[in-house]
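User: My collaborator sent over this chain with a note saying "see what the structure looks like." That's all I know about it. Can you take a look?
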Amino acid sequence: MEKNATGSSLPSGASGDKVGAIVIGGHFQGLGLLRSLGRKKIPVYLLDQGQCIGRFSKYVKKFFKCPDVKKDESRFLEFLVNLAAEENLKGWIIYPNDDEMVSFLARYKENLEEYYRVSTPHWDSVKYAYDKALTYNIAEKCGVSAPKTFCPESITELEQADIEFPVIIKPSIKEPFYSRTSKKAILVKTKGQLIEEYSKAVKALAPSQTLMVQEYIPGGTKNLFSVGCLCRDGKMLARVMACRLRQHPMDFGHATTYARTVDIPEMGEMAGTILAVMNFHGLAEIEFMHDSRDGKYKLIEINARPWGWHTIAIGAGVDLPYLSYLDMLGEEVRQNGFAEGVKWMHLVTDIPTSAIELLKGRMRLAEYFNSLKGKKQFAVWSFEDPMPFIAELVLLPYLWIKRGF
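Assistant: Without extra context I'll predict from the sequence alone. Here is the result:
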């Protein structure tokens, strides 16, 4: 049996083969997972409902096209159960890469654990990340600062509210709002604009969902930070922190394009407090905005899954996917510290994002070139595994239409 980082033997499957992993979603964050595990000689199967760059990685043992969980959960559940039987995957570890899959795995965790190890925690924990209204409730319970948030139940209530502008409108749950509008949030500056945009935004929600009106925190991406970590029973086992300096679009980004590791102990402690109350187990990202008006770090959202820029941790000396794999197999995991100043870039989105910022005069050329210096971790490009990058270039029109630039 192969030895792990702690010197003990890695558990094997019933047949004596090493326990493998199922990565659901083959975009760049899924690619980061399968590369991390593949480099450790862990067999990895990749599932995706459409075209994806991850399937071209040399570390993918098998690729399967799967049903769309958003359209038919029962069909997707049946697919996973059949896959376990047909491929002899008993005890393999499942990793999700989007919020809808997290929700599905959390709610069907007990069913699926007859066949797999599910890296997503139970719904009682996940719901605080999935629904932002609950996210802010738990922040208040923990004494962690968050933006002032108002959840009006009607236009009349909104019209009568005493609101200081500007504010943003955003849904408590991402889908289907994001798919229908291609927006995570809407900035409004006047009462009239608020009523107009709110009236339109309500139509993009599912019947049981709510819209939130939230104070706008100024400062842009230079004040956007995250703590990425691995937890067991609410206790952090390993972590990394980063400032997410560029995203697309820059104001309310769909995804980070450039980040740099930083160490902010105060923010790490707040993230740890929240995750402890959630009794969280697994990989998570906790997002904060630094409010220069009062000097506080304010909770924005929690992602109960691997996040887009998670591979920056590998460059900083913390291989979170592999540590998660060991933890799921019951191995003792402990990682202290990470390297500061490590940079992460997703080239196909960061180059055009930077070009737009240069043209608008919001970035200097020297600033951009300085951001390229030093130790870097790329989202897709890799000398050892180049085919996903080539595939991304070829699939770029398809990916931009499907996912949006």
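A starting point for your reply to your collaborator: Residues 196 and 266 are 39 Å apart (CA to CA).
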